[in-house]
Automatic annotation (TrEMBL):
Membrane topology designation: Multi-pass membrane protein
Subcellular location, record wording: Cell membrane
The UniProt record lists the keyword Acetylation: no
Keyword annotations: CBS domain, Cell membrane, Hydrolase, Membrane, Metal-binding, Metalloprotease, Protease, Repeat, Transmembrane, Transmembrane helix, Zinc
Binding site for Zn(2+): H67, H71, D166
The protein's name: Zinc metalloprotease
Presence of keyword Transmembrane helix: yes
Cofactor(s) in the UniProt record: Zn(2+)
Residues in CBS domain copies: 252-309
Family: Belongs to the peptidase M50B family.
CDD domains the record matches: S2P-M50_SpoIVFB_CBS
PANTHER family per UniProt: MEMBRANE-ASSOCIATED ZINC METALLOPROTEASE M50B, STAGE IV SPORULATION PROTEIN FB
InterPro entries attached to this UniProt entry: CBS_dom (IPR000644), CBS_dom_sf (IPR046342), Peptidase_M50 (IPR008915), UCP006404_Pept_M50_CBS (IPR016483)
Amino acid sequence: MRPTLRLGSIAGIPVGVHWSVLLIMLLLGQGLATAVLPAGAPGRSALAYWTVAVAVTVLFLISLLAHELSHAVVARHYGVPVRRITLWLLGGVAELEAEPPHARADLLVAIAGPLASLGAAAVFGAAAGGVYLTGLAPLAWVALGWLALVNAVLAVFNLLPGAPLDGGRVLRAALWWWRGDRAFAARAAARAGLGVSILLIAVGTLQIFWTADLGGLWLILLGWFLFFAGQAEQADARLRGALGGLAVRDAMTPPPVSGYVTQRLLDFAEIAATAPADAYPVLDPDGRPCGLVTLFAMARVPEARRPDTTLRDLRIPLDHLAVLTPDTPLEDAARRVTASRLPAFVLDQGILVGLLTTADLNRTIDLATLKQGRAPS
Ligand SMILES: [Zn+2]
């Protein structure tokens, strides 16, 4: 999830929002201002309802952020780097750059978010109770009560036992601890995630047909999202199961011929034709790798411009590529190659020793699966 807008960083963790968060703010704000608040505390002006609705929506986003920050801070405590936190339509995502090192860490990272939501529910609940007892400001206690309820629902929903929900991670950690096999635990949690997603879609559909309440659409949307996330989770678990214990050197291929930044496209095209590959490294005048040029990009230069085009014009710069070493664990490398969709450079003390492509990864997975003597599950 790429954030549309970066808000800043908290405790050194970049925080951003995706544009779809506006949609949820509008829906929530409108629902609060026109239905929830008028029903709980009737007789106020529209301005009062809208002002409180906006404040409640912002507090809701802050409690979502607290949920994700808790995951992130605990992950970092166990040495897992956190790339960023993004808030979006269906909640928040804390992107971890590696997996927690052991089952206990996996469990604590997973449970931290729902615990934060429960904590927020308790704080808002206590505040709502306090305001209620004073008998003043009924609008405020309805708003605080709503925040308490929503945070409690968030905690419970996230604890449904299917990956990638937090409850799925808890399930994974428990199975990992019990069986001592992380790959098995991850596959089981991903399968449970697909089960949960189908259940949500079914319940949402029933809700629409039986009660004619369109609120069921949210459940269907969530279930649909979880279904695809669960499939990605399953693919990831399979990959990790097959690649565990291997390093980049076990899967990389030697680099094909390289071009130079100053080289003209037409000259390099003749050389490239002799070395079958989809992408070629580009070197700077000192012979250091400085980017990659794809056959696809070369072929798309209009004929009239080809004589004046050099590899400098076509190259994808090095900082857009994953740069690995021969010793990088293949599981981590696979994640980065899949994310960038470009071949990764394998450098050994600054010298290009190989490329790692998705084709290399697929071949390695198939070979590993053959060796294990069972089909991937
Ligand atoms: Zn969470």
